[in-house]
Design goal:
Blueprint: H1 2-31, H2 36-39, H3 42-69, H4 72-76, H5 90-95, H6 97-119, H7 123-152, H8 163-186, H9 190-202, H10 204-207
Membrane topology: Multi-pass membrane protein
GO molecular function: G protein-coupled receptor activity; odorant binding; olfactory receptor activity
Domain G-protein coupled receptors family 1 profile: 1-185
């Protein structure tokens, strides 16, 4: 049980750290465009990607060890009635709450700085900034809402929730972002957008 919780929360944390790095990339591109190529070098991107992967692995592993030491898994996972989701995640959520909040605050800070810069620039600049940030904003909001649904389960006892709602909320951040991200970023590619526009203009019958 602990192994599955570790894998799930490591994945969730990796998603969050990658979104944080993407927010930093857009912050540099919009607020410091002249320094973009000097700050976002290939070596720095490699370093940031390694941090995005290994930091969650280490931090979630640390919290998992704490769970074993305090025997939280044996106490809370003795039966299905003690679960508030599909897995025993409540102790790990309680320990790692700050770990999730720090990246979220950083992303909000970068977008606040971007908004302040856009206020002083032309409408054309704001339009380009929005086009650059919109896919990331959609992905970030989707993931944040899905993660909030999972965290909200820890506020309730198992017998206070409808089992169907519990399943949906538990799986939201594992299913919705992976389905949402390819669509959001794929529509931004000219080749994919062109195919979709031609399909919509001609209609399904014309394609056949």
């Amino acid at each position: 049980m602990l192994y599955s919780v570790y894998v799930i929360y490591t994945y969730a944390s990796c998603e969050l750290t990658i979104l944080t790095i993407m927010a930093y990339d857009r912050f540099i591109a919009i607020c410091q465009p002249l320094h973009y190529h000097s700050k976002m070098t290939f070596q720095k991107v490699q370093f940031l990607v390694l941090v995005a992967v290994f930091y969650p692995v280490c931090i979630v592993g640390f919290y998992s060890v704490l769970l074993l030491n305090y025997r939280c898994v044996e106490i809370n996972c003795t039966g299905f009635s003690a679960l508030t989701g599909l897995w025993c995640s409540s102790p790990l959520v309680s320990l790692s709450g700050d770990h999730h909040l720090h990246p979220l605050f950083f992303v909000l800070y970068t977008y606040l700085r971007i908004l302040l810069v856009c206020r002083r620039r032309s409408s054309e600049f704001r339009g380009k900034a929005l086009q650059t940030c919109l896919p990331h904003i959609i992905s970030f909001m989707t993931y944040s809402i899905s993660l909030f649904c999972e965290l909200s389960l820890t506020r309730f006892e198992a017998d206070q929730l409808n089992p169907s709602i519990t399943v949906i909320l538990s799986l939201a951040y594992l299913i919705i972002p992976p389905l949402n991200n390819p669509i959001v970023y794929g529509l931004g590619l000219p080749q994919i957008k062109g195919v979709i526009l031609r399909f919509l203009k001609k209609g399904p019958a014309a394609e056949i």
